[in-house]
TrEMBL record:
Keywords: Aminoacyl-tRNA synthetase, ATP-binding, Cytoplasm, Ligase, Nucleotide-binding. Residues 10-44 form the Anticodon-binding domain. One of its GO terms (molecular function) is ATP binding. The keyword Transferase does not apply. It comes from Selenomonas ruminantium. GO terms for biological process: tRNA aminoacylation for protein translation. Pfam families: HGTP_anticodon. The keyword Magnesium does not apply. This is Anticodon binding domain-containing protein. Transmembrane segments: none annotated.
Length: 52
């Protein structure tokens, strides 16, 4: 299982609590709150989904 890319690079992202997330097979990234990203990954683990 591959995990999507996750990046907390800039000062603004750190201040906002957001991260750039790139899902496998998708060229563009999206901005998500870190809490939402953690929930998303936890749900995928529970459902044993191969598609991130």
């Amino acid at each position: 299982m591959e995990i999507c890319g996750f990046s907390l690079d800039g000062d603004q992202e750190m201040a906002d609590g957001t991260a750039a997330v790139r899902k496998r097979g998708v060229k563009d990234s999206e901005t998500m709150r870190v809490d939402d990203f953690i929930k998303y990954v936890q749900e995928k683990i529970v459902s044993k989904s191969e598609e991130f």
